[in-house]
């Protein structure tokens, strides 16, 4: 659906060159919610502007639905951009137009007949939950309502791709969740491909299928959300994972606890179906050993739960090997973090 091949963007003001996006290659599948996370200055905004053709890459190509956006010009680029919509952090509404008029605007520009516009606006108002607010002015709306208008407006021309640029960063946590639920609902109902950029891991955890982590213009880590949460490889990814409250630093397992105990401490990491199994109970019954739970945490993502449990047990070498084999068999990652 979306293919970025070796994309680089260098800004050169004559004195110094700055590489904002550095050799990025990504593929986003049709119907996916794809997150791009990074701190300020990582290159996310530049990357999203390359996706909708607002910036031309210095090197590489951007292809959306088989069309090469990076080399499209004039009318071809204009037509392609009609199918790539954007939702902004600060809503970017027209303040002198009502809710309905804001939503209608891009259809008027595209020359859609009036009766069709009226029907589509009513449909979109319903979809984003703004019934009764059709004639309100943007200044009369809450932040969440403004973003609902922004989303309705972005959907007006039935886009193939919805780009969200920090769409919830100006909202409070409760409103953020409502807007994320709306985006997730739209994605499911219309199989609309969504690419969102954010600096909040909560957004990724709540609605993304896959995620790319950006640092200094590069994608340093990429994968499905559950794998990234359970096996973050890069220090920056670990920092983002810790951002999510359940994984906050103060709730991390205290390694001193393991050092003081005789025997073995195993960290179990489970995802998906394995979170529903009474694993510790099963192991206790099978081996007749008392497992002591030292620490545990669970996190919900768009693809189900994942969790980690730290257990302490005194077992023979043979029992321990069997326990680890059993865990592997049940799709649970068992890591001995202290032995003997
Ligand atoms: N038009 C431009 N001219 C020169 N430098 C630019 C331009 N646009 C972005 N940059 C630089 O490119 C780098 C990446 O910026 P970008 O806005 O893409 O990052 P970001 O991850 O979106 O951060 P933020 O969330 O703060 O916008 C920054 O160092 C920025 O100063």
TrEMBL record:
Any one GO MF annotation of this record: ATP binding
InterPro entries reported for this sequence: AAA+_ATPase, ABC_transporter-like_ATP-bd, ABC_transporter-like_CS, ACT-like_dom_sf, MetN_ABC, MetN_ABC_transporter-like, NIL_domain, P-loop_NTPase
Keywords: Amino-acid transport, ATP-binding, Cell membrane, Membrane, Nucleotide-binding, Translocase, Transport
One Pfam family from the record: ABC_tran
Subcellular location: Cell inner membrane
Membrane topology annotation: Peripheral membrane protein
Residues covered by the ABC transporter domain: 2-241
Keyword Secreted: no
Name used for this protein in its record: Methionine ABC transporter ATP-binding protein
Lineage of the species this protein comes from: Bacteria, Pseudomonadati, Pseudomonadota, Gammaproteobacteria, Enterobacterales
